[in-house]
Amino acid sequence: MEPHDTIVIGAGMAGVTCARMLGDAGMRVVVLEGRDRVGGRMHTDRTCGFPADLGASWVHGIEDSPLWDLVRVLGIPTLEYTVGSFQVGGRMMTHFDGDGALMSAAASAQWIADAEAVDRMLVDVIARSFPGETYADVTERALDASGLDAERIDEIREFFRHRVEEQCGAWIGDLDAHGLDEDGIDGDEVIFRRGYDEIPARIAAGLDIRFGEIVTRVSRSASGVRVTTTRGEYSAASVVVTVPLGVLKGGSIAFDPPLPDEVAGPIARLGVGVFNKIFLQFPERFWPEGSYLIRALGEAGERWHSWYDVSAISGIPTLLTFAAGPLGRHMQQLTEDEVVADVLLALRNLYGDAVAQPIAQWVTNWGDDPFSAGSYSHLPTGASHRDHDASSGPVDGVLHFAGEATWGQEPATVGAAYCSGHRAAERVLGRRVDLPAFAAGIVARERTQSR
Question: Which of these, 66, 19, 355, 12, lies nearest to 197 by C-alpha position?
């Protein structure tokens, strides 16, 4: 077997970040990746001549964001698109009421004001919640105290349910009352003109990455670690496991000896949500210019409720909607054409015959992907925010974990994956790694290689 100092399992954002930092420090590093590409849940499809981000899309808040600092140093072009946080208002939105009728500007403004008022009440209700209460419990308490009429309460109840689905990929009754505490957005959000996976691809350039290596066992002893894949074995002094939480929970990787309760417990308690995307491109725009978002309230939006205008990426009229939580799992049982037909039915309830057949479509299936087994982590009842960081280890000083689920400050984001990879590298090295110097090193390496 080849000599390695560290084995990194997974070539997603956390894995390539960690491996690059260790390699820059002079360590012999090999990255084992089951897929045939880098990026993991950052997956950009360019087969139609423009980028469609089938996985992660947004930087969720650019203020005080190490990920945004990296994007700026790398000179990657972005578009401001601050609705990825499922806001009540704040940007140009087109609203339809529960009967599918277009709402006036005044009616939309009143809806936003009412929903924001209940949302402010909800903050206090959550602060006074009891252990074991769900997000459904606390939202009902806030709605009961709102004094609004029954129809408006139903609309806001739907909004809260859809927010949990989009933010967590989970059912509102399964999420802990504090499950959205960690989802604050500071500053604008951005999407990527050239595709989000440019970031891990540029970090990974030149790394020793072995594709098609599906890891089945990680063994540790006093002499180091041994990693078994479907193709062979690797040994090293340490290993960093960056596979998604869904893969860990599924048990396809055996740990010998078994993980201690300090790490196995958090992995078992944390939840994995399903969040799938449906992109539809149309021959003509049938929705207003300048509207970030089309949103149907109440009964009209019970299933498909929010369509995001992402036409600026391709220059072709394009809407993006999501199937998340229970709907996302249900849609994975249907064919792609059946999913698209269902979305079109909901759109035609709003816009009638103006909705033509799409000229292109993309439908994702992250819950059934064996290398992700879900979309991202969330906090179900029985778990706590501390479980995220606790799941990172280390174990016996040689086994480390990284990935969005292991970063408690902003889990379920690319920023979390990036920061967790940085933390794992620092733990392996036993010293600090300067992030600005890391970013500058990527650019300097690119310049040297282009000469």
Answer: 12
